[in-house]
Amino acid sequence: GLFVTDYFTRTPRKLSPFRSFASIELFHFHIPEDTVIAVWNLITFKEQGGTFGDQCPDRSITVYFRSGAPSVINPLHTHFPRDTAVPGSFALTLTWTLPNRTTGVFNVTSPLPGDWFLAAHLPKDEGKISVKGLYEECQYLFQPQLIVQRLVNIAVLYPGHVTEQSMAPHNRSCLYKVFVPSYTSRVLVEVLRCRGAEGCPLWLRVRAKAPPLHNSTTLDCREHTPCQLAQDLPFWQHWYYVLVEKHPGVPGTISFQVTVQLTDCSRPSLARPPFLPSSASMNMPHSFGSAGGLALGDSPPPTSPNDTKHAIPIPVTSHAGERCWPVRPTLRNELDTFSVHFYIFFGPNVSVPPDRPAVFVINLLPVLDSGGVLNLELRLNVSSLCGENVTVFGCLNHEVPLTSGDNTSVTCETESLAGFLLSVNATASLSRLRIPYPQTGSWYLSLRSLCATEHGFEPCTNVTAEVYLRAYLSPCINDCGIYGQCKLLRTNNYLYAACECKAGWNGWGCTDNAEAFSYGFQLLSTLLLCLSNVMFVPPVAIAVRSHYLLEAAVYIFTMFFSTFYHACDQPGIVVFCIMEYDVLQFCDFLGSLMSVWVTVIAMARLQPIVKQASVLYLLGAMLLSMALQMDRHGLWNLLGPSLFALGIMAVAWTARTIRRRHCYPPTWKRWAFYLCPGALIAAAAVLLYAFVETEENYFYIHSIWHLLIAGSVGFLLPPRAKPSRRLGPLPRRKGCGYQLCVNEQEELGLVDPAVASINSICTS
């Protein structure tokens, strides 16, 4: 056949250490139909400071693959919530082959068409809290690329018609496909009139949705006569691919005929007619995709010597389980994103008769519904059992209802189908099922009632059970509980939801309490972070006593908002918020930076030099507010104002030192007992904040940070300024007199008043 190659790529993204599904990077691809091979090229490289990160450590990268919906991953091996079904996925770990780059390849032969999802993450780290901009962080970027090779013009088989084929010596196989509409209970493929070799050396393989593989359903035509391969309970509204493969080493040309028969389960004794009326073509695509393809309601194309189609009568035998029952639809009611309720007509109470199952269909829209959780709830009305020991079984299957001919069967699985089983009885009248990230399409729920006897389950007589059925789509499982937050995430145009747990809780629904914080620990951590701000009371008292009223007001502002911000910022249930979280955070950060600013400006003692020193206070408040609004967690928000204020203080102290020709402050006691201890305490606080703080020790390390910062302010705040020693003008007399004009004295009594010089004598 003719192959066409398609290429898809995605933008590189930065990977994060795994904490929950909200921390992974999700990539969405779409594989077209008739794809015979898909190759993912997984490119990973390091960056540090805008260049290649050759010095960055090698960290393994885990990539997950799943068709139809995102992968439900659990790398930390946590517990899932009760009644949760975990769909499987394939995982691949990438190792580094070069210092700054590595590449992995993942091949899938005959992949399922439709949506494919890749999820990637780094291993869990120690949870270090780093200051943004303090150092160049190592970044691990991941970029997947997809190359698909698909066949075009695959021959289409029409039910009830024979296709003649000749396989040349250089050809090894022939591929066909047939569309299976709804309400089909059986697909029968048969190879007829095999000529050209002894014993018909052909293999017959059949697979749904994609071309067959080596492990697909296979039949050796040499060992089976007639060569018939049947598929019971096929997937509805999908293509089935038929591969006729020649045995190796067979010379010459082999000719044969292929035919497909579909059994309509609504009429088990009849096969589907070769050509349905136009109104029946609603269940089948109008175009088959092959050159000269036959659309429903059209006439067959002209026959050819090597490929002919004509109708032949094929006997159809009734098989057990071929009969199907009416499928009751559900009404879709969309309330919000991933918040959809499926209502049953004349429900939600459902009557399950003893002689037949009740079948319902739930349709999930492609892409839109696969990022949430499908919830199903069955509640049995015990009063409707009339004292009988009745059990109602429910089978939830994807794309085809499972209605077994054996009424005593309680399984929801076959050789080619796997479903989910629910059961309710008088003892356990409630059953739930949760499927995170369900595959889209049609989900069928079949309800049957059986009576328990000494010999197992048997069909009931004259007992119609009543069941309350509830089906809905939610973003997260139980809204992640009280110790989690349900987050709506987006990757390109795809939306999905995931839980982000707190207070040590883990798991898909934040229900795993193996590492959870106890209530006492949560209370202790909250009290530590809040009460440590009481250390600002001594600096406030010192500031008031020294007549630094503006500084005292800033310290009170910082103490108040830091206390209530940390009371609102707790991860557990010991939380108290007096305002919105964002307002409290902004005021806490602004108060902290303003405390540093006003303390350093007060140390500079600018009042005698700059007559309007209050301008600097106002300018600092405005600039800090602007900086916090731009980037609240940036390093320069703390370092920039601090360095600027320290520069102003250094200029002021240097000017005094040069003018007086003496070090300022001049007393060694001021340096030894106030400035040096205060600077050391502040430096220790900064080091703890920048290099020691992690998520595990945050509660007590940050409390120590509060204590050290408040203590350093008490040491660094200058003492009260002594009153000016300026000599006021003498009282003027009527007549002659003198007025002495004396220079103002230096503050803090650093200049002996006895040596104050008189600059001028003014005569009045």
Describe the structure.
It contains eight helices and 36 strands. β33 (484-491) and β34 form a beta hairpin. It folds into four domains: 2-152, Jelly Rolls (Sandwich); 155-264, Sandwich (Jelly Rolls); 327-475, Jelly Rolls (Sandwich); 519-716. α1 packs antiparallel against α3, α2 (537-545) packs antiparallel against α3 and α4 (581-604) runs parallel beside α6. The strands form eight sheets. Strands 1, 2, 4, 5, 8 and 10 form a six-stranded antiparallel beta sheet that branches. Strands 21, 25, 27, 28, 30 and 31 form a six-stranded mixed beta sheet that branches. The model is unreliable at 274-322 and 737-764 (pLDDT under 50). It is elongated and about 115 Å long. The chain is of the alpha+beta class. 20% of the residues lie in helices and 33% in strands. Keywords: Cell membrane, Membrane, Transmembrane, Transmembrane helix. Belongs to the TMEM8 family. It is a multi-pass membrane protein.
